[in-house]
Amino acid sequence: MGRPAASPPLSVGLAAAAQAIAHRMSGGQGAIAPSSSAVTDLIYRGTRYWGLAQVRCGRLAKQKPDPEILALLAIAWAAIDQTLRETHVVVDEAVAAAKLLTRSAGRSDTVAKKISGFVNALLRKSLSDPAACAKDHEQPIARWNAPAWWIERIDSDYKDKANEILDALTTRAPLTVRLCEPHLYSQQFIEKLNEKGLAGYRVGQHAVAIEPAVPVTEIPGFSQGWASVQDSAAQLVIQPIQDLCQRLGRRPKILDACAAPGGKTFAIAQSVQAEIWAADVSPARLKRMRDDWPRVKPTSQASVQFILLDVLDERAWDQKLGPAAGFDAILLDAPCTGSGITRRQPEIPWRRDQAGLEAVVDIQRRMLDTLWRRLLPGGELIFVTCSVFAAEGELQESAFLGRTPDARSLPSPGRLLPVTDAECGNDQDGFFYARFQKQKHDGPDSGAACHRHAVVGPDRER
Length: 462
Prior knowledge:
Number of strands: 14
CATH architecture of the largest domain: 3-Layer(aba) Sandwich
Strand content: 15-25%
């Protein structure tokens, strides 16, 4: 037998991870697929240190380095702080990675030597002054790994709670799954995890957090559709739909207006008897959803039709669903900033800006108004965002009620703040839910009274 293949040098992984981070942070479409789980880990570590790298380079360097070199420094500082390897090894391999990155960009050996020397100097300079480095971590941009405007927005929305929320959003989240009962009960599932040497914690009615995270193929019951990856807060969409079905006493017609990648669609399909239309504007995302459906379908109670559709395109809507199409329930898991899921995707704050927030709030507004016209009288519209910004939650809900006289606010989960404490049975991303019923009669008192008494935000009925 031949010798096993040697693992590639750390410098190769550092260079690959730096390229992937720079691509993400520059707003590149799609993701550079990591070559290994080790590179994936480096990407995550470096992304979480992106803010720290900016603070430290601002202190130590005369000018900001190119994105790939900044990403490389972020990974190296994370590796040093977290003792991924011995410090001198990290420094040496980072210097070698800088040469790889420079040469792969087609630059000369002279430039490669200069840039690798820059990386070497910054790393060693930081190591020579641990007290200053400790202060770097105290800077808000570094502590919460987000630009100043993002931090100020959360501070403005939450005041005294802001630091707690920001801390939660920078804590690494566990892998959370939704169990399709009765196929797999929580305790039975946790026992199966323990047999594999994993820990499991119940964090919701159908939710179990797994630590450490594993590939989906290693999750018990995943291939049979008994378990699916989904945050515990996202799973709360099930109860309002179950309540609606019970009220109607029949199979409802449900539209999931922004369905891909399918987590909420499939959660509903496994929980109620219904006819579901799963619409999405992205062909690639809808394809992934279709591809995952055979895994879930044997445990489904509902029928699901997949539709490529931009719900704001009236002509496409009429072509795909017909001008008279109406639904008993519409789920709008709306496009948003994703500010509530940064513990899972730490690059999000750096890919957004204030203009982008305003644009997505406008899209949400137009989607709410468009979909409301497709809701049958007596039907319900559920508005969801995975955001902690009030502009994408409480303020959006209040504005909709103010301009929609036949909308009545119903009890819903409301504002869900991010929490990371799986061992104590409490773990979730930041979400917002609002639930509206379309009144059957549009009289002078039909909407106004409801609007006057509607309660929004954290104090609403859960």
